[in-house]
Amino acid sequence: MTTGTYHLGLPAWAFPGWAGAYFPDDGHALAHYARAFNTVEGNTTFYRVPEPAMVQRWGEAIAGTDFRFSFKLPRSTTHERRPDWTELERFLAVLAPLGEHLGPFLVQCPAKLGPDAMPMLEALFERLPVDYRYALELRHPAFFERPELIEPLLQRFGAGRVMFDSRPIYREDSQHPEVLAARHKKPDVPLLDTVYNGLVYARVVLHPEPIYNGPYIDEWVARCRRYLAARHSVFFMMHCPNNQHCPAFAEQFHNALRNAVPELEPLPPWPVPQHAGLF
Fold first, then answer.
1. Element (H or E) spanning 42, and its range?
2. Cβ(135)–Cβ(159) under 8 Å?
């Protein structure tokens, strides 16, 4: 089967407890991470624009790989009544040296942003360079009740729509302490899995207790197999209320997907040896 492109990643490339358990505990955390996974959600850029020297170090850490960063746009752009376009320009300029290692930018909107804010969304996308890809995450109920409201904008700018799946933490053991501690950060929104413009950007939040996750993993394996067969570009981001579990859950998903798509290479053994690679 000829497939589309497949990128598997986590919400970060470093987390307390990962070093030594999943990755070597010395050296550059990003370099170790990029030998196992080929994308990551860059959530820190939501809070501040990184310094150019830091971006240069990131580029050096993933040199020679097909790694793709998926950086979140600054909250000053997406979460303020008056977006800070100057900071958006600085954000894009600072990250531009990463070149081909830039994957889809994550445009995450607050739940209060509804259809009446469409002019602001259009103004934002008009300021984004056309040579990058974007995945739009919406949380207002109206965009789930009437997804057609956003479709003209997606088509106009060639963007994807984030597929956010938090069902495991809302349908299964919702009283688990890790779930209770994190649910305010993980919205309970319907899962919409329509693909726009050939870009699949899935953010899947599994339950910290593995016994609940099997059916959801099976669903996503079936979806991703179809998406890859249709030659879509798939970015699959594995989340969990406690990030400690994310690497193991991503490995479980990847192994299950390999059974459906044998062309995929296995993940390297952990801790990741320096010579290993994902694809």
1. strand 39-42
2. yes
pLDDT surpassing 70 at residue 220: yes
- Give dist(CA 161, CA 136) in Å, integer: 5
Give mean pLDDT, residues 3-21.
93
pLDDT above 90 as % of the chain: 89
* Residue 79 CA neighbour count, 13 Å, CB half: 12
What's the CA gap between 254 and 265, in Å, rounded?
9
Q: Beta partners for 221?
A: none
Which of 30, 36, 26 lies closest to 12 in space, CA to CA?
Answer: 30
pLDDT at position 272, please? 63
What is the layout of strands, in order, in the sheet containing 134-137?
A: 105-108, 134-137, 160-161
Determine which helix (DSSP H) or strand (DSSP E) holds 238, and give its type and residue range.
strand 233-239
Rounded Cα distance between 21 and 12, Å, is: 16
pLDDT score of 157 more than 80: yes
- Going 254 to 257 to 259 to 263, the CA torsion angle's sign is negative
pLDDT tens digits, one per residue of 42-53: 999 999 999 999
* Residue in 82, 23, 86, 32 with CA at minimum distance from that of residue 62: 32
63: tokens are: 């040199």
Can you give the length of the chain in residues?
279
Q: Which amino acid is at 188?
A: D
Identify the band that residue 273 occupies on the pLDDT scale cut at 50, 70 and 90: low
Residues 144 and 191: beta-carbon distance below 8 Å: no
Residue range 116-127, pLDDT digits in tens: 999 999 999 999
Can you tell me the distance from the alpha carbon of 109 to that of 205, in angstroms, rounded to the nearest whole number?
18
C-alpha 88/C-alpha 85 separation (Å) is 5
At residue 220's C-alpha, the angle toward residues 135 and 211, to 5°, is 125
